[in-house]
Design a protein that fits this description.
single chain; mainly alpha; 73% helix
Length: 103
């Protein structure tokens, strides 16, 4: 499909995205950045786990009757934990691969 004839088409969303993408700085992708990102992910996972546990306690004590919010908190915590474990497994796999390299 030839889209070259489509000129003058604009979207506020596209304009915002172009502006935001030009504002981003190229960040250093060093080990420090990766480690900081991993630690932030662990902190977020921990916070979601704590929130889900607190929601379960509130529901068990009868302070909350909304099962929908409880299930959402549990699912968020579960997905975050699964993602964290998957990242950990990939990091360990990469470490083992590096250690098996012949120098």
């Amino acid at each position: 499909m030839d889209v070259s004839s489509m000129t003058g088409i604009s979207s506020e969303y596209l304009k915002d995205m172009v502006q935001k993408s030009s504002e981003y700085e190229i960040q250093d992708k060093g080990f420090d950045t990766v480690l900081r990102s991993a630690m932030d992910m662990l902190d977020e996972t921990n916070a979601l786990q704590n929130y889900a546990e607190e929601a379960e306690i509130q529901f068990a004590l009868g302070y909350s009757t909304n099962t929908h919010d409880l299930r959402i908190a549990q699912e968020k915590a579960n997905i975050a934990l699964q993602y964290t474990v998957a990242v950990r497994d990939k990091v360990i796999e990469a470490y083992k691969e590096i250690m098996n390299l012949q120098m």
